[in-house]
Design goal:
alpha/beta, four-stranded mixed beta sheet, 6 strands, about 10% strand, globular
């Protein structure tokens, strides 16, 4: 993004006062969710603060955890170590638990194309390469998968207001171990601006011959 655009986004988010937390009044996270679901054709999105958080959410959303096996896209060394830490054994062959796409400035305009053939229950999109801090998303059409992944990221709750009381707790979707995987609205706003600009047609410059 241009520096002017970045400054505009930062000023907009800082003015709201919702910078590092998830509140019901926040508009940045829902805005990025809508953009990602529109571009990928998936019904629901879970935003998290790292690629490994997205891998965890994609698996936990399907009830895959310690002691289970799963087929996954070829993991790199870091992803392999994380899956081992989760206690998930990678199996050879069979339908994969999730598809994986990593975005950067060179391919950010091709998200729809890159995910068009995705058929796995979950789609993990790593947004870290766009340059605004670790960020990722899990996209899915499965309401149950979405609910379990959403609860994983914020201590078993849907938002900070219910995090302390667990008043919305549901034993079927709340994970036994709860994590703080929430993405900040500030990072979400910058990622959304980068994806929006990448999708715009290039504007011709220079004098006509």
């Amino acid at each position: 993004m241009e520096l002017f655009d970045t400054a505009t986004v930062l000023a907009r988010v800082l003015t709201t006062g919702v910078v590092m937390s998830i509140e019901k009044s926040d508009r940045e996270l829902p805005g990025l969710e809508r953009l990602l679901t529109k571009q990928t054709g998936r019904a629901r999105a879970v935003l998290v603060n790292s690629r490994t958080a997205a891998l965890h959410a994609a698996l936990a959303g399907q009830g895959i955890g310690h002691g289970d096996t799963a087929a996954v896209p070829e993991p790199d060394a870091a992803a392999g170590r994380f899956l081992q830490w989760l206690g998930v054994t990678v199996q050879d062959g069979g339908p994969v638990a999730y598809d994986y796409v990593s975005l950067d400035p060179a391919n950010a305009d091709r998200l729809g194309e890159l995910t068009r053939d995705s058929a796995a229950p979950a789609l993990v999109v790593d947004l870290t390469g766009l340059g605004f801090g670790p960020a990722a998303a899990v996209l899915t059409d499965d309401a149950g998968l979405w609910a379990r992944a959403e609860r994983l990221k914020i201590f078993g709750a849907y938002d900070l207001r219910t995090m302390w009381t667990q008043e919305e707790a549901d034993a079927e979707v709340v994970p036994g171990v709860q994590f703080n995987y929430r993405l900040s609205p500030l990072v979400a706003a910058c990622v959304r601006m980068a994806l929006t600009q990448a999708a715009r047609p290039a504007t011709p410059t220079g004098a006509r011959s």
